[in-house]
Amino acid sequence: MDKSKAKTAALTRRQRRVRGKVAGTAERPRLRVSRSNQHIYAQLIDDVAGATLVSASSIDPELRTALSSGANADAAKAVGGALGRRALEAGITEVVFDRGGRLYHGRVAALAEGARDAGLKF
What we know:
Helices cover 44% and strands 19% of the residues. The chain has 122 residues and is of the alpha+beta class. Strand 2 (40-46) and strand 3 form a beta hairpin.
């Protein structure tokens, strides 16, 4: 197994381990963070109904024009803030954080900080 396949397999194992322990409901949805090399995405998911309640990403038109890059901590914090505002408009105040197998560091931590600053509790 080459190095990139091993890293992908390790990430998948961590994602599955986290998902075994974290589940969202309509009252307290799961805040799922996904990131690529160029963008960051977040969504609030009700696992009972299997539905996405609110989402935000660095490719949203309102954020894309305001950001110089979708792949840095500033963009992640802006996405977290947008997600937090949209969640509060939808009546959601508490969430369960799903870091998606990634370390709570860098862009993932910046997104969480932006969501907390907007008013989400987790």
